[in-house]
C-alpha cells in the first residue's frame, strides 16, 4: 500500500478522514476471480481539483464521493485530455493526446473519424454491453447517431455541447431519435428564439419541469438494473457543474438548479448557491449508484471511476475562487496551467483495489483506454498515446510503466501548448499567433502552484521541452488554426 500524503494538494481534515476510513462490509454475490468486472466511468463537466472534500474542499461536503475515495484509490497527478469539452472527450474515448486527436477544439468540423477506435468499441469486443448517458459533446456538429457509430449500444442525452448548456431541454436524444421532454419550454422573444444562431435546443428555459441531470440519474439506475446479469460498461458524462452560459448572459445566473436546497438561506450570491446545489446533486448521484450496485449484489466486482473533464469554470456568474475550486493550483478552464488540466481521479473496485490508497503516478485521459482494455482482457488499439495504469490500481507499483512525457495543445485565446516531464512542466502561450511567447518552465515538485518561472535557469530543459512540443504535434490539414514556432 502506497501513501503519498505530501503530494495530495491541500487535503482537509475531512478529506484525510475520508481517505483512511474504510467502508462497511456489504453482502455480495460471489464472482469468479477471472470474471471481467462491470465498469462505470463517471465524467463531470467543469469540476475543479479542489471541489471535493477528499481533495481539500472545506466549505462544500461530498460525503458519498469521499466514501468512494476511502474505499478505493485517489490519484493526485491525473490530467484531463484538454481544458475544454470536445477535445478532452475525444482524448478520453480514443486514447490520444491533443497532438494526435481528430477533435482539438470546440469548433465546427471537428469530429471523431470512422477509423478511430473508442473505449466503447473495445469493450464491445470484450463482450460488454455498452451505454452512454448524459452529454456527448464530442466535436461539432455530431451526427444524431454518433454515440452508436462509435460503439455504444445505448445512448440517452445531449448530442451537441451547446445544447447541453440548457439544463431544462425541450428534447434529448435516445438512440439517435429526438425525444421531447414534457413540461420544458425555451424562452422566445417576439415569437423568435434569441439563440437561433446556436445549435437547436440551446437557450434558457421559460417553463422548467424536468431537470436533465435527474433524468440521467433515472436512466443510469435503470441501465444498471437491466444489465445486472450481464457485463456492462456505462459511460456517465454528466453536464454539471457546467454553467448555462446563455442564462448567465440573459439574467445573470447560469447555475440553474431546481432549488438551492440547504444552501437557500446562505449569505451567498445565487450563482454560488446554484453551484453548491450542483455539487450536492453530483454527490447524491454517486451515492445512488453505489447503493444500486450494493442492492444488486454486484458492487465488489464493479470498477467505478470518477473524474472531471477539465478544470473549474468561471461562467454563468460563478467565481472559481468563491469555493476555492482549483485548490492551490494556478488557472482554470481554458488554461494549460495545472488548474485547467489536473483533475480529481478516484477508482473503486473492491475485488482488486485496496481501500484508502493514493498514488502520485503521473497519468492522463489517454491512459484510460489501455487501462480499461487491460481490465477487460482485450488488446488495446495500436494507435494510442496511453499507458495502462492497471498495475497502480492493483498496488503493483514496481510493474507500472511511466510516460516519457504528457502533452497538450489548445487553440483558443491565441493558442497554447504544455508538456509535463517528470517534475518539470513547460507552457508556451500565443502559439497560434505570429508572436509566440517564450516557454515558461516550472518545477512542480517544489512549486505545484506554478508561481516561479525558472526557464532562465534551465535553458537545456527548455530546449528539450520545445523539441517535445514539435515532436508531439501532428498538424490537422483541414484545421484552419496552426501552431507557429
Describe this entry's structure for a reader.
With 485 residues, the chain is of the alpha/beta class. The chain is built from twelve helices and 18 strands. Helix 1 crosses helix 2, helix 2 crosses helix 8 and helix 6 packs parallel to helix 8. The chain is globular, with a radius of gyration of 21 Å. The N and C termini lie far apart (45 Å).
Structural class: alpha/beta
Number of separate helices: 12
What Rg, in angstroms, do the CA atoms define?
21 Å
Shape: globular
Oligomeric state of the chains in view: single chain
Lateral strand order in the biggest sheet = 7-6-5-4-10-1-11-12-2-13
Order of helices and strands: HEHEEHHEHEEEEEHEHHEHEEEHHEEEEH
Strand content: 15-25%
Distance between the termini: 45 Å
Please summarize the sheet with the most strands. Answer: 10 strands, mixed
Low-confidence stretches: 1-10, 12-27, 29-33
Mean pLDDT: 93
Give the total of beta strands.
18
Give the helix proportion (percent range). 10-25%
Please write out the topology.
Layout: H1 13-20, E1 38-44, H2 63-70, E2 73-75, E3 78-79, H3 85-94, H4 119-125, E4 129-135, H5 146-149, E5 154-158, E6 171-174, E7 177-180, E8 185-186, E9 205-207, H6 212-226, E10 232-237, H7 245-251, H8 270-295, E11 302-308, H9 338-341, E12 345-348, E13 357-359, E14 363-364, H10 368-375, H11 390-393, E15 406-410, E16 416-421, E17 424-429, E18 440-443, H12 459-472
Parallel strand pairs: 1-10, 1-11, 2-13, 3-14, 4-5, 4-10
Antiparallel strand pairs: 2-12, 5-6, 6-7, 8-9, 11-12, 15-16, 16-17, 17-18
Amino acid at each position: 500500500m502506497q501513501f503519498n500524503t505530501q503530494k495530495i494538494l491541500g487535503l482537509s481534515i475531512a478529506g484525510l478522514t475520508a481517505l483512511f476510513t474504510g467502508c462497511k462490509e456489504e453482502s455480495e454475490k460471489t464472482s469468479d476471480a477471472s470474471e471481467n468486472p462491470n465498469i462505470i466511468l463517471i465524467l463531470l463537466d467543469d469540476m475543479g481539483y479542489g471541489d471535493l472534500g477528499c481533495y481539500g474542499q472545506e466549505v462544500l461536503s461530498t460525503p458519498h464521493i469521499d466514501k468512494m475515495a476511502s474505499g478505493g484509490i485517489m490519484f493526485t497527478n491525473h490530467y484531463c485530455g484538454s481544458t475544454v469539452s470536445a477535445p478532452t472527450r475525444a482524448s478520453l474515448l480514443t486514447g490520444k493526446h491533443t497532438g494526435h486527436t481528430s477533435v482539438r477544439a470546440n469548433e465546427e468540423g471537428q469530429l471523431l473519424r470512422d477509423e478511430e477506435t473508442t473505449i466503447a468499441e473495445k469493450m464491445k469486443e470484450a463482450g460488454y454491453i455498452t451505454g452512454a448517458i448524459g452529454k456527448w459533446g464530442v466535436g461539432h456538429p455530431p451526427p444524431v447517431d454518433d454515440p452508436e457509430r462509435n460503439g455504444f449500444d445505448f445512448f440517452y442525452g445531449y448530442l451537441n455541447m451547446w445544447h447541453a448548456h440548457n439544463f431544462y431541454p425541450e428534447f434529448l436524444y435516445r438512440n439517435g431519435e429526438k425525444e421531447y421532454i414534457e413540461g420544458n419550454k425555451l424562452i422566445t422573444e417576439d415569437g423568435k428564439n434569441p439563440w437561433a444562431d446556436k445549435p437547436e435546443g440551446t437557450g434558457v428555459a421559460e417553463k422548467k419541469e424536468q431537470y436533465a441531470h435527474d433524468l440521467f440519474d433515472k436512466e443510469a439506475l435503470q441501465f444498471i438494473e437491466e444489465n445486472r446479469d450481464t457485463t456492462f460498461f456505462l459511460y456517465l458524462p454528466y453536464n454539471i457543474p457546467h454553467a448555462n452560459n446563455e442564462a448567465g448572459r440573459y439574467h445573470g445566473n447560469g447555475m440553474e438548479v431546481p432549488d438551492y436546497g440547504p444552501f437557500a438561506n446562505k449569505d451567498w450570491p445565487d450563482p454560488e448557491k446554484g453551484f453548491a446545489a450542483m455539487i450536492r446533486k453530483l454527490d447524491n448521484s454517486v451515492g445512488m449508484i453505489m447503493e444500486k450496485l450494493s442492492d444488486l449484489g454486484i458492487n465488489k466486482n464493479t470498477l467505478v471511476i470518477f473524474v472531471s473533464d477539465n478544470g473549474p469554470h468561471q461562467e454563468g456568474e460563478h467565481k472559481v475562487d468563491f469555493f476555492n475550486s482549483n485548490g492551490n493550483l494556478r488557472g482554470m478552464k481554458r488554461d494549460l496551467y495545472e488548474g485547467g488540466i489536473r483533475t480529481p481521479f478516484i477508482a473503486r473496485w473492491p475485488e482488486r483495489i485496496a481501500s484508502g490508497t493514493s498514488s502520485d503516478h503521473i497519468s492522463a485521459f489517454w491512459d484510460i483506454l489501455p487501462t480499461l482494455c487491460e481490465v477487460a482482457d482485450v488488446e488495446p488499439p495500436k494507435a494510442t498515446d496511453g499507458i495502462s495504469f492497471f498495475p497502480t490500481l492493483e498496488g503493483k507499483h514496481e510493474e507500472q510503466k511511466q510516460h516519457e512525457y504528457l502533452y497538450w495543445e489548445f487553440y483558443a485565446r491565441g493558442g497554447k501548448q504544455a508538456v509535463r516531464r517528470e517534475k518539470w512542466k513547460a507552457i508556451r502561450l500565443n502559439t497560434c499567433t505570429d508572436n509566440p511567447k517564450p516557454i515558461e518552465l516550472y518545477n512542480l515538485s517544489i512549486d505545484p502552484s506554478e508561481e516561479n518561472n525558472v526557464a532562465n535557469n534551465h535553458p537545456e530543459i527548455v530546449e528539450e521541452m520545445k523539441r517535445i512540443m514539435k515532436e508531439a504535434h501532428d498538424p490537422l490539414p483541414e484545421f484552419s488554426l496552426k501552431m507557429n514556432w
